[in-house]
Hints:
Largest sheet: none
Low-confidence stretches: none
Number of strands: 0
Amino acid sequence: AALEQKAKEAGRAGDTEKMRALSLEAARAYDQFVEAHPDENPERLQTALINAALLYEAAGMQEEVQQRIEVLLSRWPAHEQALALQHMRATSLIRSLHYDPAIQVLETVYHTSHSIGVGTEYGIPSLASAAWLREGLGQYQRAAETYEQYGLENPDRADAAPIAFKAGQAWEQVGLEEAQAFYLRYLETWKDRSPDHTLEAHYRRVVLSEKKAETRPSSQSLNDLTEARQAHQEAYFRLKDSISPSSPGHHQMSESALQ
């Protein structure tokens, strides 16, 4: 604890090199305590492992951080602080531009949190963060699947439908057919739960059907376009009073009608 305090003082004084050296020394002291007292009170062991992880983080030793977190989770799977440390590690990886490892950590945090119901305030949204990172990296199909997974596995959350809808823009990067299939899935699954997104899903169906009719003209593509426009119109008149006057849904309906 004394070494830890000295490390903090060095950090406040701006002596980064000294802070890292003292943090490393303090972390190793906590490690020695854990090794020497394997049957110690669980709370003291947990505190020692957490402190060691935080100190290794301060020393910039990410592998050591991960090892302490893994020990915590292997011995106490429902330990919320271990998940919080994982989440902190993901944030650190993102800041250092290590996006793929950050995605793996975020998805691990989500799956652990979702399965045991611990740390849900940051654990559940971790999956949406992973999807966002995948989309930014151009991993469009994986991103789209992850956005949809978030909605389907967390249907009672207020952000379930909006997050699931984000899959649309990713599927559009994958292909026209895949995007059209998604918007139909979205409308079937979420119906009118989020009126703005419902109307936008109908609008995107119209836009994509127009593209298909232009690039691959056929009687079927024209029929699909007619059906998409009719469904959009019906949805608009059903939901127009549920959206704000400034909602894009009004403009989109006008544009679709003009077409």
